[in-house]
Amino acid sequence: MQLKKRTPCVGICSTTYGDLVCRGCKRFAHEIVQWNGYDEAQQDAVRERLQRLRDEVLEQVLLCNDPAALQTAVTDAGLSDLPPLEQQYQLLRFMVRREQPLASAGLASAGLTSAGSASAGPANADQQQSAPEHSAEAQAHGAPGQDPQQLDTLALMQRLDAEIYQRAKAHYERNFKVPA
């Protein structure tokens, strides 16, 4: 018996409230409505677009300061069998749930410029970069009495999510929106 691939839905659908791009899964409203009518190739095309978008943003917001620490964290989290960018994304999710700072996995946050491009390179072991252990933005989101470094992973995931949403929305407006 072959299992069916899951929907990209994360259970936070904002299209119900009028958004043309879902803030949860980043699919377009028409894709959500028509999802069950899509054949496997159409569903895979949507999944691939969402993954490419996520990977593109991830490469721009995440730096690797210590490839050995990153590999150890990936192994400890049981993510070694995944492709590198999927490892990094799933590791971030794992770290958020455990309130672990980026530095504990040899990672750091790269700043996006106002144009949306990163100020430094990706978190690949081949391209080791130096960056502060935690960003000023993460400090700004900190609650009183909490170590800002503990919040940097959550702040990075929030930045990643917001940037993916903005890019998905721009893609929709460029390719699907009908002028009024």
Features:
180 residues, mainly alpha, two-stranded antiparallel ribbon, 6 helices, 3% strand, globular
The secondary-structure element order is: HHEHHEHH
Mean pLDDT score, rounded?
Answer: 81
Physical arrangement of strands within the biggest beta sheet: 1-2
Q: Which regions contain 5 or more consecutive residues with pLDDT less than 50?
A: 113-122, 124-146
Question: N-to-C terminal Cα separation, in Å?
Answer: 48 Å
Report what the structure shows.
The protein is mostly helical. The chain contains six helices and two strands. The protein has a domain at 56-158. Helix 2 (40-61) crosses helix 6 and helix 4 crosses helix 6 (148-175). The chain has a two-stranded antiparallel sheet with strand order 1-2. The protein has helices spanning 29-34, 40-61, 67-76, 84-97, 136-140, 148-175, and strands at residues 62-64, 107-109.
Brief write-up:
The chain is mainly alpha-helical and 180 residues long.
Per-chain topology:
Layout: H1 29-34, H2 40-61, E1 62-64, H3 67-76, H4 84-97, E2 107-109, H5 136-140, H6 148-175
Antiparallel strand pairs: 1-2
